[in-house]
Amino acid sequence: MITLFTLIALVSAVQDTSVAVIPRPVHLTRGTGAFLITPATAVVTDRATRQIGHRLADWLEPATGYRLPVTAASGAATRTIALRLDTTLSRLGDEGYRLTVTGTRITIRAPHPAGVFYGIETLRQLLPPDIFRAAPVSGVTWTVPVVEIEDQPRFAWRGAHLDVSRSFMPKEFVKKYIDLLALHKLNRFHWHLTDDQGWRIEIKKYPLLTAVGAWRRNSLIGVQHRYADTTQWVFDSVPHGGFYTQDDVKEIVAYAAARYITVVPEIEMPGHAQAAIAAYPWLGNTGQQLEVLNHWGVDQNILNPSDSAIHFMQDVLTEVLALFPSHWIHTGGDEAPKAQWQASPVAQARIRELGLRDENQLQSWMTAQMSQWLAARGRALIGWDEILEGGTEGLAPNAVVMSWRGIQGGIAAAQAGHDVVMTPTSNTYFDYYQSQDQQHEPLAIGGFLPLDTVYAYEPIPPALDSAQARHVLGTQGQIWTEYQRTPKNVEYMVFPRLAALAEIAWTPRESKDFADFKARLAQHFNRLNALDVNYRPLK
To answer: Which residues span the domain enclosing 448?
Structure first.
């Protein structure tokens, strides 16, 4: 017979917020006692988990002051951390794992290496928060509570975006950002590399893209109001720019891959392209020499729909494909005003030649050219939901839609048989204010997105039936940097909202609990402190 005391103990084992893992594991049972990590502890691996074992030793060494040996056998070690693949756990999928902690042994098993990696990320969160320090910490007992965890993600696409076009971010910060994604078990890094205000990736065939397109002469100060009289805008006198060499890109892609993160590059077309047009005016519709844009918003200058412009885009993507093994290549497609096409003889001739209805269908035709070109090379185009505006005719079947203007684009795409990533502004745009008291918050683009609204988001719309819902790959958070000029500013806007989104993407819907999340977040802040993350505290 189960007594009331036993029932309370069982509930406590599942709900114990002293085990403050984010995102919340699917199944967690708390036992009694702890495992103590000492210099005599060994990391025991099989061949497939050897590199992950060395990474665990790398992560534990700075704070503990000692490096654990990584071996194929336990030897004389009385306490071991064992990492191994286990095909009997195939039900956990590509990224699931089982973590067992007893007083003498920690075992992490998974059917695939990614699962073992996520298991050691959970193990790090089970240790005292000082384990994330970069120098030895005295007076800390490095214990792990006795637990049994079986865990796997809800969604395959768990992402975070970073815009480096409006405000260039150093390579070192990009790596830190990737580390923070991995800590939260996110597996997609959407890297927004080109826009009107800056082209940030070296393309060897077109050197002016970075020699000219990576630099703007100044930037708008303060909030950009949509004044009819733009002379009211005030600019600084500081040139801004920077770009990543192809060697930089290779380094970052490899860094992410070692953390089981896929880097999805975004190369904007046909809109948000003024930096490219400033470098090569023949890409535009007017032939005028333009500057790299120094203010924000939607710009009228877009790529023309000529054969030469399409060849340019394919040339650029040829070099992009060589740098990024990602199955998905993001081509933007959002906010492309058509006024220049309406006045362009080239665009109008193309519409007549193809028998198209209008300029929206012309953009869809251009997107389809790129979609088919990528599909022929084993890749998939992903674009913002505007790629649906002229219809889906010609899009390769593997094209993916990122639904940002609400959820209707995602619903339409899933109903048409296309995979979707749900990224609505209402719940996933971290450049929005976190408080109604905007005077005491960093400058933002506008809007209001508090932590609880992020956490409340459900990525699968009720309008989709079960078959259509399978097209929802997952979700991700967005950070645009018109007003987030520094890495510390980016961190403040992203955290802790990205932690909430990570739990949406990983944890079963029925296991989400905002009060429980906030309790775990209080402990998680200690980890972010140790990692020197400029998060926004709960207020």
So the answer is: 159-507
